[in-house]
Specification:
Keywords: Oxidoreductase. This is SDR family NAD(P)-dependent oxidoreductase. Pfam families: adh_short. Belongs to the short-chain dehydrogenases/reductases (SDR) family. There is one protein chain. This protein has a seven-stranded parallel sheet with strand order 3-2-1-4-5-6-7, with helices on both faces. The protein is built from nine helices and seven strands. Helix 1 runs parallel beside helix 2 and helix 3 crosses helix 4. By secondary structure, it is α/β, with parallel strands linked by helices. The longest helix is centred in the middle third of the chain and has 29 residues. The structure holds NADP nicotinamide-adenine-dinucleotide phosphate.
């Protein structure tokens, strides 16, 4: 445990992938945990894996897109494990954006979960954090949100929106003692990435490696954390590339990335 983490850690998207691995990593470090996910069966499985932890583990099934349900879930979890000191908003969805049958409903769903869902989770814990004079919000953006990625335009847009949303909130939260960390993972091997029809094998972190980075973010409270190093460097480069150069790269490399047309 780190001295910088006070109170319980509330984690959304805890049933699968990075969230599940982070829940297990945090439990092994002795933190009090509140776990939220919409997948009841898988969430119960994670709780079973962690095992009995009197007063230090609670879970609720909730959809992050439903603010009332999130408020109720947070109340329920906090009554068992105590006030939330850290929120890790990990619940997210992602799918490819393929042409010619553009699917605006998929874009709406990604904005709803990846942006509004994070806002709902923050809104649910924020009054308590402000009343107690502090807290920490960790939002999971993505390297894919730095520039528009040709085969995942909707996902890129949702993560770009999340990044700027968290950045915009940061000063007002800081004045109230709440710090914000934005996390930018590169590819991680989870259900979200597993089915992607990449033409060539793409190096991916295991969820446990991503979880170790999230634990670092929770304990050290950096403003931003990008990982792995190659993704962090790539992100810096992508940000600096002139638009014309970026467009040319994507015109050429983009269509060769997948085995399906987009
Ligand atoms: N994997 C990567 O390469 C990668 C890279 C960068 C960023 N990220 C981000 O990291 C986070 C975790 O992704 P992951 O790869 O671990 O994905 P994952 O394995 O699909 O896990 C996401 C979890 O969030 C849950 N969830 C989705 N929508 C929800 C909702 N409306 N309410 C409550 N829970 C919901 C999912 O439940 P269901 O199973 O029911 O959908 C699932 O348990 C996401 O924000 C993702 O965008 C992932």
């Amino acid at each position: 445990m780190s001295g910088r983490v006070s109170g319980a850690i509330l984690l959304t998207g805890a049933a699968h992938g990075i969230g599940r691995a982070t829940a297990l990593a945090l439990a092994s470090r002795g933190y009090a945990l509140g776990l939220i996910d919409r997948d009841a069966e898988a969430l119960a499985g994670v709780v079973g894996e962690i095992g009995e932890r009197e007063g230090a583990l609670s879970f609720r099934v909730s959809d992050v897109t439903d603010l009332d349900a999130m408020r109720e879930a947070v109340l329920g979890v906090e009554s068992a494990v105590g006030p939330t000191g850290t929120l890790v908003a990990c619940a997210g969805i992602g799918s490819l954006t393929l042409l010619p049958d553009l699917d605006p409903a998929a874009l709406r769903a990604m904005l709803d979960v990846n942006v509004v869902g994070v806002a709902n989770a923050i809104a649910a814990v924020l009054p308590g954090m402000i009343a107690r004079g502090g807290g920490h919000v960790v939002g999971i953006s993505s390297v894919a949100g730095v520039r528009g990625m040709p085969w995942m335009a909707s996902y890129s847009a949702s993560k770009a929106a999340l990044t700027t949303y968290l950045e915009g909130l940061r000063p007002a939260l800081k004045r109230r003692g709440v710090s914000v960390t934005t996390v930018y993972p590169g590819f991680v091997r989870t259900a979200m990435t597993e089915g992607t029809p990449f033409r060539r094998p793409v190096p991916m972190l295991e969820p446990e490696q991503a979880a170790a980075q999230l634990v670092r973010a929770i304990e050290r409270r950096p403003r931003d954390l990008a990982f792995p190093m190659s993704a962090a460097l790539g992100m810096g480069l992508l940000r600096r590339l002139p638009n014309r150069v970026y467009d040319r790269m994507m015109d050429r490399a983009g269509p060769r990335a997948l085995t399906v047309d987009f």
